[in-house]
């Protein structure tokens, strides 16, 4: 692993981080469509599966801020990413081995929490590494992140067909392979320098978190990810119940990510043309529509295809704008912790509660009502982001006027 500071660097030193995103999302593209069916195959009921998936996500409440603190204080992000990826791979192998023994629910829960603790911080710190490597050109970030979407497609399509043939038993093993590949790729990534403070004095994370608008932004991010709960936990199960094959389900997951890739390459132009608040509110509105379509029209292929195209808005746009907001709000030595707090609040707390609620809803109400509940959460997120508009319009570490 090179430890030479990357500085602002050139495009060549960004190539390995692209492959890092590819490898991480290769594993995520296995986990999201197939891990809940894998747990159901182990004999767990849907409400238990929702709780189990929530435990994996709940680790994000603690793990990303902890790793962000370590990164900010050590000034090193790549070495910690490599170590975390390797431990995650070992724990994924443990999840594969549990299927062959009578570990009980407690055994599964303990290992899932441990896996989540090491796996969940990876993405937020990959984002930190990417933003540090791009230096004063954060508009390069979406093109780098798009490689993660490509990895997700390779997993959900290519590996979906493989799982059709060899069975769901392969799921945790394939996740472990992807994590080992991530560690290997990161070995080639140069250790980037820490961005300098742009304000008169260092950013106080405590003071920033006391600002009502900042808290509103984090609460809105929480609800954005909560609203994905039923989708991430039971979209594949819902489609299987409607008669779709595993290969078709993988293709439908991939379609959403293709739309996300297209969006990521369009984002630099959209960023220059439209205000971030407009982009974020538009994305949340389309997200609310998406859940209604999946809940009420999933048996109509045309509507389902359109709903999957809206993944570009519900995940791609909300994620990118959120990353940019935190990049502006938490510069310098607060950078890694700022991204980690967003990860904990949204992909941790929001996603965990969303998955838990999904488990409670699924089987107790019809699928359309479960997705309608996610639409309500989306509308609440819209209201919170509108109230927090001052933050979304950038602030203290501002490098540009948007």
TrEMBL record:
Ranges where the Major facilitator superfamily (MFS) profile domain occurs: 213-402
Pfam families the UniProt entry points to: MFS_1_like (PF12832)
Compartment(s): Cell inner membrane
Keywords: Cell inner membrane, Cell membrane, Membrane, Transmembrane, Transmembrane helix, Transport
SUPFAM superfamilies named among the record's database cross-references: MFS general substrate transporter
Membrane topology listed for this record: Multi-pass membrane protein
Membrane-spanning ranges: 21-40, 52-71, 78-99, 105-123, 144-163, 169-187, 214-234, 246-267, 274-294, 300-326, 338-363, 369-388
PANTHER family named among the record's database cross-references: 3-PHENYLPROPIONIC ACID TRANSPORTER-RELATED (PTHR23522:SF10), BLL5896 PROTEIN (PTHR23522)
Name by which UniProt lists this protein: MFS transporter
Species annotation: Guyparkeria halophila
Taxonomic lineage: Bacteria, Pseudomonadati, Pseudomonadota, Gammaproteobacteria, Chromatiales
């Amino acid at each position: 692993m090179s430890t030479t500071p990357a500085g602002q660097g050139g495009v060549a030193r960004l190539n390995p981080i692209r492959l890092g995103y590819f490898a991480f999302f290769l594993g995520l593209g296995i986990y999201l469509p197939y891990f809940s069916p894998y747990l159901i195959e182990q004999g767990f009921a849907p409400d238990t599966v929702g709780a189990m998936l929530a435990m994996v996500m709940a680790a994000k409440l603690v793990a990303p801020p902890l790793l962000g603190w370590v990164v900010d204080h050590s000034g090193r992000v790549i070495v910690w990413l490599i170590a975390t990826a390797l431990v995650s791979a070992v724990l994924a192998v443990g999840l594969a081995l549990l299927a062959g023994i009578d570990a009980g629910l407690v055994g599964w829960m303990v290992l899932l929490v441990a896996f989540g603790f090491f796996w969940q911080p990876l993405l937020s710190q990959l984002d930190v590494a990417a933003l540090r490597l791009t230096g004063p050109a954060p508009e390069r970030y979406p093109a780098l992140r798009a490689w993660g979407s490509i990895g997700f497609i390779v997993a959900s399509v290519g590996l979906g067909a493989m799982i059709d043939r060899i069975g769901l038993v392969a799921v945790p093993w394939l996740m472990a392979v992807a994590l080992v590949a991530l560690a290997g790729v990161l070995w080639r990534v140069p250790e980037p320098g820490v961005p300098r403070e742009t304000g008169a004095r260092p950013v106080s994370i405590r003071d920033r978190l006391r600002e009502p608008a900042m808290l509103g932004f984090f609460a809105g991010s929480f609800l954005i990810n909560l609203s994905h709960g039923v989708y991430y936990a039971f979209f594949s199960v819902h489609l299987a119940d409607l008669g779709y094959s595993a290969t078709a389900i993988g293709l439908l997951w991939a379609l959403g990510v293709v739309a996300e890739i297209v969006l990521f390459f369009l984002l630099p132009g959209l960023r220059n043309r439209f205000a971030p608040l407009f982009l974020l509110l538009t994305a949340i509105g389309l997200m609310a529509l998406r859940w209604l379509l999946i809940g009420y029209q999933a048996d109509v292929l045309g509507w389902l295809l359109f709903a999957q195209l809206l993944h570009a808005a519900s995940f791609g746009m909300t994620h990118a704008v959120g990353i940019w907001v935190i990049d502006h709000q938490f510069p310098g030595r607060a950078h890694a912790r700022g991204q980690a707090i967003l990860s904990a609040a949204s992909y941790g707390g929001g996603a965990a509660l969303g998955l838990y609620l999904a488990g409670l809803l699924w089987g107790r109400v019809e699928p359309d009502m479960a997705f309608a509940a996610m639409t309500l959460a989306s509308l609440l997120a819209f209201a919170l982001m509108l109230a927090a508009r001052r933050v979304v319009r950038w602030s203290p570490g501002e490098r540009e006027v948007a």
